[in-house]
Each structure stands twice: as C-alpha cells, then as structure tokens.
Design goal:
This protein is mainly α. The chain contains 3 helices and no strands. Keywords: Membrane, Transmembrane, Transmembrane helix.
C-alpha cells in the first residue's frame, strides 16, 4: 500500500504559499523600523509615530500567522 505523504496535503500547500511568508517579512521589516524609531530620538511626536508603525507591523504579522493557521 502506498500512503500519501502528510506534507503534501491541500492545507499544507495552502499554508506554504510564498505570499503568506512575504507578508510576514513585510510585517517584520515594518516592526523593526518602528522599534528603531522608538529608540532613535526622544520626542513625543516621534514616539507616537513609532508606536503606530510598530502596531501596524504587529497587525500585519498576526494576519500572516492566522492565515497559516487557518490553512
């Protein structure tokens, strides 16, 4: 009897799409920029902008991870 490999299922193929991992990399890069700006200067405006950028990156990363989990 020949068994199909478990890594070749439809859900695994969907979870391994390159678009999901590209989205994850974009989110990580945006988060890194937000963290860098957080420590670059000490001003209220830059601090608020850096927190917003960091939150956007976090949301993008979570979206990519949930796409992988939903596959």
């Amino acid at each position: 009897m020949e068994q199909t490999p478990k890594h070749n299922t439809e859900s695994m193929q969907k979870a391994n799409q390159t678009a999901i991992y590209q989205l994850l990399v974009v989110g990580i890069v945006i988060s890194i920029v937000g963290v860098f700006l957080r420590f670059a200067m000490d001003s209220t405006t830059l601090s608020i902008v850096s927190w917003v950028i960091l939150m956007i990156g976090t949301v993008i990363c979570c979206k990519a991870v949930f796409k992988i989990l939903a596959a």
